[in-house]
């Protein structure tokens, strides 16, 4: 077992693990760490704990130190300068006639590098833009192309539910979401109703998917012939979460509700 501390660089970013050494760190502590050959400010989200070495990356770097008040002032100054740099970069993108959308600009804590996040439909030749930006800001420039889900995560906003986007508030990593999940949950397959601000399928389709999959295994399929306490009938409606089955019985105009424990699937010849 290895003692580690989990940190995030951004509010809902991926969790990275570092060695705490002999120091005890608390939740929400601000710390300085080394990442990609630059010093960065990070927030502790998992205080000192032991983890199996097999579950961790090969190299666990030590935390440099707890951030001091001066370090926090420096970080705030970096954020202010990054906002100003955003406007400068947008003008340069227009001047170079590049088909790209600038999303965010950030400095590493030690200002050894500036990262410009952007979206684009294809590959962009931004070599001249990098030279231009480097001559203005006098530091190493990195342009990082991101997807539309990452853009929504950075910018934030309100989802169709009226709440702040999951990806920008607590989801550290994006989960695979498929149209099959919407089908299993009986949702409308209208893209406008099951897509988030990013235009992709909503992340929340994944939240209850395991429960729906379990229910589907326990219950008969739509249209299946079943044996009920009142005779044989055909399934016309399913409520997977409550395990309720509506069955159309011969001679009855209105379908009758049963729990899945009350019915049995009628075996077909040859099964």
Fold and architecture overview:
The longest helix has 27 residues. The chain is 26% helix and 28% strand. The mean pLDDT is 89. It folds into four domains: 66 residues, no CATH class; 75 residues, GMP Synthetase, Chain A, domain 3, CATH 3.30.300; 57 residues, no CATH class; 48 residues, SH3 type barrels, CATH 2.30.30. It has seven helices and 13 strands. Helix 1 packs across helix 2. One of its GO terms (cellular component) is cytoplasm. Pfam families: PSP1. InterPro entries: PSP1-like, PSP1_C.
Question: Unreliable segments (pLDDT under 50, ≥5 consecutive)?
Answer: none
How many structurally independent domains?
4
The helicity comes to 25-40%
> What string gives the helices and strands in order?
EEEEEHEEHEHHHHHEEEEE
- For the secondary structure, the number of strands is 13
Q: Main sheet: which strands, in order across?
A: 2-1-4-3-5
At the first level of CATH, what is the class of the largest domain? Alpha Beta
Helix segment tally: 7
Give the amount of beta strand, in percent.
Answer: 25-35%
The CATH architecture of the largest domain can be named as 2-Layer Sandwich
Shape: elongated
Averaging pLDDT over every residue, what do you get?
Answer: 89
CATH topology of the largest domain: GMP Synthetase, Chain A, domain 3
In whole angstroms, how far apart are the ends?
Answer: 52 Å
Main beta sheet, described?
Answer: 5 strands, antiparallel
What Rg is obtained from the alpha carbons, in whole angstroms? 27 Å
**What class, by secondary structure content?**
alpha+beta
Assembly status: single chain
Domain PSP1 C-terminal: 61-146
GO cellular component, one term: cytoplasm
InterPro entries: PSP1-like, PSP1_C
Pfam family, one: PSP1
